[in-house]
Structures are given as structure tokens and as C-alpha cells.
Amino acid sequence: MVTAMDMAMIFKAKISRPVSGAILYCLSSIAFAQQATSGAAGGSSGFAATSASAPQSPLSSASETANQGRDWFIKPRVSLTETLTDNVSVNRVNNGKQSDLITEIAPGIHVEARTARLKAYLDYSLRGQMYAKNSDHNQTQNALNAFGTFEAVDKWLFIDFSGFISQQAISAFGAQSPSNSTINNNSTETATYRLSPYIRGQIGGLVEYLLRYNLSTTRSDAAIVSDTNISEWTGQLRGGTPFQSLKWTIDGSQQSTDYSRGRDTDATRIRLMLTYAVLPQFKISASGGQESNNYVSLGQESHVNYGYGFDWNPTERTQISAFKERRFFGDGHNISLSHRFPRSSIRFTDTRDVSVLPNQNTSIGLGTVYDLYFQIYSNIAPYASMTPGALKDAAVANAVNTLLAQGGISPNTQVTSSFLTSRASIQRRQDLTLVLTGVRNSITFVANRTENQSVLAATASNDDFSQSTLVRQQGLSINLSHRLSELSNLNAVVSRQESQGSSSVTGNSNLKTTTTTYLINASTKLGAKTTGSLSARRSEFDSTINPYTENALLGTVSLVF
To answer: Which domains does the chain have, with CATH numbers?
Structure first.
């Protein structure tokens, strides 16, 4: 039995690349053995049959229908990518360029579990990158997206878990990488793992309860970046009143965050919320409570909270909600608006709250093409109506992976980036997403804006907040997809992001970087299990310190066993 101490040791251990490779080899061997015994080598790719113009649920697609009786779904794969670039290292001064030919071999595996107790999803790849002219930079990179839920005790005790590994930008003001194969000392591999057991049920059939414990750890290969451990308890009670339209909720939390290169923080909070249904489609709510933390001061400070808001669902396709709350840092809020048209959808969110981790270390962000489409698909039919949980996440992940595979676009292609930090911050984030789909064409428009402000009283960390107390980032991305035939697709992506910094202490307001990327891609099916693609990319990075431009041609061949 794994004890709490054992789990803590696991979280403190860093998974090395050789170990990751061994895991991949073992899982691949299991997959081949399963194929040999179950006759599963008959052509299903392991991903949902989804098109860019009309996303279908993986749970009801043709490929899944043939495998509905299977509890485990395992598919290994391998891809070969050749990249010819005229600027392999973006850290060269005075825009000095060096061309190179980069060969990337990436074995990977896709695993899904759909048993009575376990719902899980895992997608892992190990990318080996070899440089023709810069062999001293040959390297391997891990890419992991895993999550799931285990029902330990029937309808009472559950265990959520997740793991994410990706390449992240260290600083918002350093050179931004056009791809994961670019040599850049401002990029590092970052891994986040989370384990969250919880219980839920009812008391006397009148009051619902939920008690959850979250344990997460974030590790980075860069020595200057802080490792982060978070331990959190959350609880909730919900019930009704003699007035049928009036409901109440009591929730509380206690969180401890440990930064290896920063100051540890502790925060507790308790809140009572009342919700009244004016109409079945319209509800109003009000809250009151208290929170205590040491974000602003070295010691604990208590603050009274209160807020109000509403939820309005005028139709099944339209959701509008807003909540404003008085917090220790001023006003916090959470605003959301979404609407689904027959062949398009629009979504806008605006939040302001405390953030103890940068955006890219969460399960869903806007850092990569995969992140972008995961958020989009989560809020459009048929996924929007699915119950939140591992099954929905797996369905969305399958649909996104299929869409990107059909378009020949790497899931790790950067659209917008954040930065790694070693302290809590006040973050305001605004996201606007618009999706237009046709029979053979689709357009995805994404705009986002974030403001991160340091709130700590003191810290020993050296990150972007050491240069600027306020970091602003805004980005725009447009993706056009055209289906040439049943086998071939054409895609074009244009993205632009700007980062700015300012400091009321040093008066430094000259921190500014702009990254613009153009990508065009053509892909086609080469066989029942093989896909090929050709891409052209141009990246422009504007900075007062180290600007650069890069042009690249890419060819990829992927084989799913």
C-alpha cells in the first residue's frame, strides 16, 4: 500500500529522461502484446474520427463504436520530423543567424481506461532531437498529458490525478521560441503532477457534502526557476431551505504553497453563499465570509469578503454569468458569456483572482495550439453538454488530437506564452474565442489579455516580478483550416503576442517584447495508418535586447500502429 509519506516522496522525486524512456518502452511492449492477443491491429487510430468543420463526440464516432466493449485502449505511434531553419539559436546577439537541419524522432503512446472504476487518459511522447551543425545541443524532451478519476469506494471515495510535461518560457521578456526544437536558454521543460482524493455524499438526504485534498508539485529543469509544492484542503456543504427557490452553500479552504526559491504562503477562507431562483433560467446570488493569508504581509492578515452575482441561461445554447466579490486585494470577479450558433460559437471570460501558479502549469491554458482547441471544444457541442470529468476531458482531448493530426499541426506549437514565477500574484485574464465552421472550412479567432501583479511583501526569488511589479500580456491568434479532400487538409495560423512591464519602484517602463508567427501547413493521408505533412514558418521577435527573425521548412511523417 502506498502511504502518504510514500506519495510525498514520489512528488519530490524528479522523473529523469532515461526513466521516461523506459516507461515508454514498457508501455509500448504492453500495447504490442495487447494487439497480438486482441486482434486490435485492424486500423483504428486510437483517436476520434473528427473533422475541423463538424466535431463529433469520440464516444459515438465510428472508430469508438467498434471498441465500446473494450475497457482499455492502447495505441503506440512514432513520428519523424525534419526541420530546415535559418536561425537555430535565437539567443545570438545582433540578429546573428546560423542555419541547421534538425531531425526529430518522437515515439509516443496513447492510453485510455474506461473501466467501471477507472476513467483515465494518457498521451506521452519522447522527442529525440539531433542537430546537424550543433550536435552538442542534441537533446530529448518529454511531452505528457494525463488525467483521470478512480472510484475507490462506490459513489463515495474518488481519486483524481493528472500530470503535464511541456516546454515553457522562463521570462516574458526573454526570447520566445518558435518551436520546441529551437535552441533557447529562455525555455525549459516543466512538469506538474497532481493527486486529489475526495469524498462526496449526502447527510440525511438533505445536505450534500464534499471534502477534497489537493497535493500538487511543479518541477522545472531550469535552476533559476522555483519548484512549487501546493497542499490544499477544500470542503463544501450545500442544501435547501423551506423556501423552494432559495439554496445555500458553505465552502472553505486551506492552502499552503512552498516555493523552493521564494517565500512560502498560507491562505484560509470560509464563505456562505445564498442563491435564489427568480426564474428557472435566472438566478441571483450573494456571499459573505472571511479570509486570512500572508500574501501582502509577512504575518497572517484577516479580511472580510462579500459579493454578489447572477446566472442566466435564456436558452440551452446561451449561458451568461457574473460574480463580483470584495477581496483583500480589492475587487475580484468572474464573468462568462457563451453562445452556440448552428455552425459557430463565441465565448468570452473575464476573471480577476489570486494565482499561485503560472497559467501554463494548469491543465487548460492558451499556451499551445492544443490548449487553445481544448478550451474551444470543451464549450461547443456535443462536449458542452457532457458532465464535467475524466470522460468529457478524454473525449475533448481525442477530438483535438484528431483535428491537429488531420491538419498536420504539432500540438505543442506555441500560440501564446506566459512566464514562470516564484510567487503569488493578482491576475486578471480576459479571453475571447470565436469559431466559425463550414462544410470544408473553419476559422478560429482567439484574443487574450492578462495582467499579473506581484502582491508579496518580500521575496528572495529572481523572476519577471523582480524587474517589473506589473506584467501585461496580450495576444491574438487566427487559424484558418480548409479541407482539400477526404485525405488532405490545408491550414494557416497567424499569431501575435506582446508583453510589457512597468515598475512603480524602479520606474522601469521599457520592458517590451513582441512575437509574431506565421505558419502554413498541408497534410495528407499516406496510408491507412500513416500521415504526412509539409509546413512553412516565419517568426519575428522584436525586443530592445535581442530581436531575431526565423524562417523554417518542416516535413513530418507519422505512423500510428
So the answer is: 4-560 (2.40.170)
